[in-house]
Amino acid sequence: MRYSIACILGCAWLALATPSIAETEGPYKLNESILGFELGKHTLEDVQAKLGRSVPISPREGEPFKICYVSNQQPEIFVVFEAMTKTASLLAFTVTSDISKIPERDECIKSPILSQSILTAGMLKLGMTRAQLQEVFGKASKSEGNKLSYIYQAKVRMSEEEMKRMEDQWPDEVKKYPYWNLMSIISIELLKN
What we know:
The protein is α+β, with helices and mostly antiparallel strands. The chain contains five helices and eleven strands.
């Protein structure tokens, strides 16, 4: 199963996805793009070409590489992009004004492009109220106190290229079920004030 996850933590959001789902449509897809960078399509190199050179933060084994940027203005806005290798497609991005959510903050470089008005193509942005979120996304799939989750699922047929690649590893499975099962979770933690 392939996953796509987006989260707002405090006044932050995080989106995770896997490559080659550019043809996928749906509410989750709109929140997998920020500042013109689309998860599964663009790379850390693409991000650096637009936002400036940042040294990728080396991961622990099995974790993605990260590059971090911070706005020039107050309140500081942090953006972290992640990919499994320095040249692989983007897996995730985090946007926050909560410095405690960014352990790699000392590695962040300044970027004049960043501001508090950053939003995804699906209109997800920092500072949204519960009412605004409900207006844009509808009723949350799950709600616990100040934490909301929106869960979307889709079945997308594999491209011919994807089927050929997958047939090498799982020939019988691909013939029986040539689809990606996609899930997108937008998890939001509202600020207390």
